[in-house]
Design goal:
The complex is a heterodimer of chains A (115) and B (109). Chain A has no helices and 11 strands. In chain A, strands 2, 4, 5, 6, 9, 10 and 11 form a 7-stranded mixed sheet that branches. A 4-stranded antiparallel sheet of chain A has the order 1-3-8-7, with no helix packed on it. Chain A is globular, with a radius of gyration of 13 Å. The relative contact order of chain A is 0.32. In chain B, strands 2, 4, 5, 6, 9, 10 and 11 form a 7-stranded mixed sheet that branches. In chain B, a hairpin with a 3-residue loop joins strand 5 and strand 6. The chains are: A mainly beta (115), B mainly beta (109).
């Protein structure tokens, strides 16, 4: 059974940092691009970042470029999102997703940025 | 950044047919935008219904179909069921970045 499990969501103050993790199982993690999406409370979906199979290519939405870093560890079947200089507008449920055609989604991790 | 547009809300009768569309501020939506469609029910993570405009996953109900129609991506639901009531999002690719539409809230009533 395929599973994507996010962890690391928390309440953090503006300007703070947080690292999200996504543990993958049940599919060949190292063969696929992986993606982070997010959804602010009551709002629509937003693509945040993606990373190539071997980590050699990364792309970011403009609003997080320079603050967030996507990475992966294929030996651990894990995806990460390092979030720095967090802002209240980063408050959202963060989903990891991947597979050949975005086949798989995690259940999400809530990040709240508030003082 | 490109803006992707969807109908904010649509209503369909049980057993009826409805088409949701996905437009781009940059012009016609083409296969080069790799259109995706996602379904999200309240309190749940999204799930992918359609990729590359018209391809279905194994879990995509047969009553859903995707196409390129009149310069837009389209998701057609034929024979709507109560369980199809959900938010639907399209996603388009623009030279290394992905942009979602604002979503369509579909009511089956």
């Amino acid at each position: 059974e395929v599973q994507l499990a996010e962890s690391g969501g928390d309440l953090v103050q503006p300007g703070g940092s947080l690292r999200l993790s996504c543990a993958a199982s049940g599919f060949i993690f190292s063969s696929y691009w992986m993606i982070w999406f997010r959804q602010a409370p009551g709002k629509g979906l937003e693509w945040v970042a993606n990373i190539k199979e071997d980590g050699s290519e990364k792309n970011y939405v403009d609003s997080v470029r320079g603050r967030f870093t996507i990475s992966r560890d294929n030996a651990k079947n894990s995806l990460y999102l390092q979030m720095n200089s967090l802002r209240p507008e980063d408050t959202a449920v963060y989903y990891c997703a991947g597979g050949a055609w975005v086949d798989y989604w995690g259940q999400g991790a809530l990040v709240t940025v508030s003082s | 950044q490109a803006v992707v547009t969807q109908e904010p809300s649509l209503t369909v009768s049980p057993g009826g047919t409805v088409t949701l569309t996905c437009g781009s501020s940059t012009g016609a939506v083409t296969s080069g935008h790799y259109p995706y469609w996602f379904q999200q029910k309240p309190g749940q993570a999204p799930r992918t219904l359609i990729y590359l405009a018209s391809n279905k996953h194994s879990w995509t109900p047969a009553r859903f179909s995707g196409s390129l129609l009149g310069g837009k991506a389209a998701l057609t639901l034929s024979g709507a069921q109560p369980e199809d009531e959900a938010d639907y999002y399209c996603l388009l690719f623009y030279s290394g970045v992905w942009v979602f539409g604002g979503g369509t809230k579909l009511t089956v009533l």
